[in-house]
């Protein structure tokens, strides 16, 4: 029972085809029908169905076995169930030999067909979960993992395809939570460098000296605490891609170092004298307006132009609201596996709340909101009540601050930071502004208190 | 002003044991908080009966019901004593148009007599209530529910049907409320009350 799985019913008899389709739809599946083998093959060419029910005897064209064999050419592992009114051992053997997963004789008991379908779907769910876990393990996401039906996003997908195998530097601009790293990964994993490392660095998360050492590495004894030689991220990414997130936050000195590495493709470790040459594609990202930073002299113009060879601007979620239902369903499906909860869908009322909300934290905030709703929901469908925390935020309703007794200053600081991050939907820039501290300080505190983002 | 779609039409198809339709009518009006009007008995269309299977085709019956639903009825539920089938399956307890207007339940396999047990009106009505809620739930767009106690869960045998409850779970209740709201734009006070688990 999962609305995302689709089934194809192939039968020349309309009443048989439509009644089985209606019965399966009541179970929550999406069902397409085909009246002939050719039509079924065409439909299977456009879509990979979770299950194919195919009638064995279809006069005036391809029969069930022939249809099955054609579908198999497109989808080798497709679960195909052959239906027949003629229960002969020969046809059963032929069907199974040619790769039918099951063979059922009509009319069959509702329990039998229900068990059969749920068994196949269980396997499909496990296969899907396995794919998700593998991807999560390797971090190998392609642009197919960026979900959108927005035209601007589709232009980005096209651009990603075109530039994936180039070496040119890319600057990705977009608000926090729009998926800049996902786009960077898509560029890397769909190009010639896919087999080489993809190394991500959050430039705002580290203080200047630490970031320098993190990027370029250091020699033993180059500073207090440098007990051994350490390779930097640029060396680790040799042959592959380095993703420099929040590039707008780096210091003037690091801007200079970065400019040199982009021009000369070489650098020195901190405290080192040996020039290290690397072949690294640089993808930088920012949620600030770098042009403004250049105008005000905070960011080097020459570095900006070096980084901005290919520019990608990701629209915020509020400008592509048509993606909200799509993303919400994707998150529900993925998080159901991760959280071990069988949540399958959301009601129209819940969807309306999601569509009306402004999403300052963008896709990440939407994901967090879905997760929060799924954690607390007690049924298999998310309703408007599961998202009341969003309507409260939208209305600007403020909760009273109750000062707890016996609380340390540190604990209070931790709670205030956690609450602010939650309110901004994980938007660190916004949270830092609200708290009146800079982002690197906020990152330090997040790390110190182990606050989930 | 009376809304255009203001009641559920309940209709016996063929001879149905006395009192059953009236009792079901009360059950439906209590659950859905809406007027339930019982229509005159309809004759089963001849082509619905399959002599070879000694059963009636629910597909043919539903098609016939679609033509007969009163203009101002929001939904129609038909009750028959006949055992129902769709070509693929040996039997079904009932059928509905998913997100449509008509639904149908059979009393044949809800009766204790079908399982060679003495008749029991209480058991029969309990089963009918769940099955009627289930089929009407489909017309409001509900699909099968994973919550085994919810009337929207799938029952493929009488044991599973008996294990169900007759109260919609919180999620199905919420969807039902939304869907009902869309159909019945009269006033929110008249919507089915939300159930808590």
Could you characterize the architecture of this molecule?
The complex is a heterodimer of chains A (453) and B (197). Chain A is an alpha/beta fold and 453 residues long. Chain A is built from 19 helices and 16 strands. Chain A has helices spanning 14-26, 37-46, 64-74, 89-97, 110-138, 151-163, 180-189, 208-216, 233-236, 252-264, 290-295, 301-307, 323-339, 348-356, 362-376, 388-394, 409-423, 428-435, 439-449, and strands spanning 6-10, 30-34, 51-55, 80-84, 102-105, 170-173, 198-202, 217-218, 230-231, 241-245, 266-268, 275-277, 281-286, 310-313, 345-346, 381-382. In chain A, helix 2 runs parallel beside helix 3 (64-74). Chain A is elongated, with a radius of gyration of 27 Å. Chain A starts with 5 loop residues before the first strand and ends with a helix. By secondary structure, chain B is of the alpha/beta class. Helices cover 32% and strands 20% of the residues of chain B. Chain B contains five helices and nine strands, in the order E-H-E-E-E-H-E-E-E-E-E-H-H-H. In chain B, the strands form two sheets. Chain B has a five-stranded mixed β-sheet, sandwiched between helices. Chain B has a four-stranded mixed β-sheet with strand order 3-4-6-7. Chain B is globular, with a radius of gyration of 16 Å. Chains A and B meet through helix 1 and helix 5 of A and strand 7 and helix 5 of B.
Brief description of this entry?
By secondary structure, chain A is of the alpha/beta class. Helices cover 48% and strands 14% of the residues of chain A. In chain A, strands 2-1-3-4-5 form a five-stranded parallel β-sheet, sandwiched between helices. In chain A, strands 7-10-13-6-14 form a five-stranded parallel β-sheet. A two-stranded antiparallel sheet of chain A has the order 8-9.
């Amino acid at each position: 029972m999962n609305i995302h799985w689709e089934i194809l019913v192939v039968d020349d008899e309309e009443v048989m085809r439509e009644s089985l389709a209606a019965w399966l739809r009541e179970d929550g599946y999406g069902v397409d029908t085909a009246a002939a083998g050719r039509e079924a093959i065409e439909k299977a060419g456009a879509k990979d169905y979770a299950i194919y029910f195919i009638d064995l005897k279809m006069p005036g064209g391809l029969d069930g076995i022939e249809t099955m064999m054609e579908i198999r050419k497109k989808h080798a592992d497709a679960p195909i169930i052959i239906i027949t009114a003629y229960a002969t051992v020969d046809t059963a053997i032929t069907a199974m030999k040619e790769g039918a997963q099951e063979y059922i004789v009509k009319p069959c008991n509702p329990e039998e067909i229900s068990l059969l379908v749920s068994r196949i779907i269980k396997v499909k769910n496990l296969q899907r979960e396995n794919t998700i876990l593998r991807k999560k393990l390797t971090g190998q996401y392609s642009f197919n993992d960026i979900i959108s039906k927005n035209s601007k996003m589709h232009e980005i997908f096209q651009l990603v395809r075109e530039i994936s195998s180039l070496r040119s530097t890319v600057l990705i601009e977009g608000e926090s939570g729009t998926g800049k790293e996902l786009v960077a990964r898509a560029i890397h994993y769909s190009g010639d460098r896919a087999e080489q490392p993809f190394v991500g660095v959050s430039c705002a998360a580290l203080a200047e000296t630490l970031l320098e050492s993190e990027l370029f590495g250091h020699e033993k004894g180059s500073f207090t605490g440098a007990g051994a030689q350490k390779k930097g991220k640029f060396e680790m990414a040799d042959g592959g891609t380095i993703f420099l997130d929040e590039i707008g936050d780096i210091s003037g000195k690091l801007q200079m170092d970065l400019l040199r590495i982009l021009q000369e493709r070489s650098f020195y470790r901190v405290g080192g004298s040996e020039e290290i040459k690397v072949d690294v594609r640089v993808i930088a990202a920012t949620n600030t307006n770098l042009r403004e930073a250049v105008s005000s002299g905070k960011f080097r113009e020459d570095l900006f132009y070096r980084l901005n060879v290919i520019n990608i601007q990701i629209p915020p979620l509020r400008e592509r609201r048509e993606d909200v239902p799509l993303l919400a369903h994707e998150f529900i499906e993925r998080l159901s596996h991760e959280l071990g909860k069988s949540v399958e869908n959301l009601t129209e009322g819940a969807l309306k709340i999601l569509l009306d909300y402004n999403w300052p934290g963008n896709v990440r905030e939407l994901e967090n909101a879905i997760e929060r709703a799924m954690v607390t929901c007690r049924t298999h469908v998310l309703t408007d009540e599961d998202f009341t925390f969003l309507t409260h935020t939208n209305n600007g309703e403020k909760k009273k601050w109750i000062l707890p007794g016996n609380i340390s200053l540190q604990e209070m600081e931790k709670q205030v930071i956690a609450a602010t991050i939650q309110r901004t939907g994980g938007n660190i820039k916004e949270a830092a502004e609200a708290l009146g501290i800079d982002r690197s300080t906020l990152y330090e505190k997040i790390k110190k208190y182990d606050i989930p983002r | 002003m009376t809304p255009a779609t203001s009641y559920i039409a309940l209709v016996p198809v063929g001879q149905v044991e006395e009192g059953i339709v009236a009792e079901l009518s009360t059950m439906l009006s209590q659950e859905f908080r809406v007027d339930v009007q019982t229509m005159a008995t309809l004759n089963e269309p001849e082509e619905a009966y399959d002599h070879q299977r000694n059963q009636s085709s629910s597909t043919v019956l539903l098609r016939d019901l679609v033509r007969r639903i009163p203009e101002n009825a929001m939904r129609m539920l038909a009750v028959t004593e006949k055992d129902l089938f769709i070509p693929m399956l040996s039997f079904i307890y009932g059928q509905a148009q998913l997100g449509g207007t008509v639904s149908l339940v059979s009393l044949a396999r809800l009766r204790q007599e079908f399982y060679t047990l003495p008749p029991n009106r209480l058991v029969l009505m309990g089963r009918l209530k769940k099955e009627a809620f289930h089929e009407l739930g489909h017309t409001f767009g509900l699909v099968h529910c994973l919550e085994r106690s919810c009337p929207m869960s799938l029952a493929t045998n009488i044991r599973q049907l008996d294990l169900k409850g007759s109260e919609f779970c919180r999620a199905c209740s919420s969807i039902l409320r939304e869907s009902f709201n869309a159909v019945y734009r009269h006033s929110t006070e008249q919507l089915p009350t939300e159930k808590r688990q």
